[in-house]
Q: What sequence folds into this?
């Protein structure tokens, strides 16, 4: 190869290297800008998504809270009805117990009266038996008043 050709090729190589470096630097700058732009767009999209999601969560939470309040109110009414029903049943049982107790007391009093009468008769019979066993003449029974 001759000297001119070599110098021309060297110059061409130098020029190409310079262009490659220039294009490389331009591509790097362009790529860096694309990355910056993508990061910005991605951040904006994520911020919009987060904002939308927060809104949906708040709406859902408000709806859920309202439903819970309605359920609480319904449960309170239900328990009030059940409680009143139980009060009524307990009152009826208590009244039945009082009536039963009064009836039992009355029967106990009647039985005590009968027992007292029987006890007196038994004592009189024992006296008569004792008198008969002793050979004495039985006493005359007292008159009832």
A:
């Amino acid at each position: 190869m001759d000297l001119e050709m070599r110098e021309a090729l060297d110059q061409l190589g130098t020029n190409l290297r310079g262009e490659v470096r220039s294009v490389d630097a331009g591509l790097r700058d362009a790529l860096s800008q694309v990355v910056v732009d993508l990061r910005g767009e991605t951040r904006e999209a994520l911020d919009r998504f987060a904002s939308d999601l927060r809104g949906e969560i708040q709406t859902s939470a408000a709806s859920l809270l309202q439903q819970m309040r309605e359920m609480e109110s319904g449960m309170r009414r239900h328990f009030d009805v059940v409680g009143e029903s139980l009060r009524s049943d307990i009152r009826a049982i208590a009244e039945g117990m009082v009536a039963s107790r009064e009836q039992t007391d009355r029967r106990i009093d009647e039985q005590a009266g009968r027992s007292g009468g029987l006890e007196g008769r038994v004592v009189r019979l024992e006296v008569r038996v004792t008198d008969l066993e002793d050979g004495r003449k039985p006493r005359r029974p007292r008159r009832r008043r």
Q: What stands out?
A: The two ends are 170 Å apart (CA to CA). The CA atoms of residues 102 and 108 lie 10 Å apart.
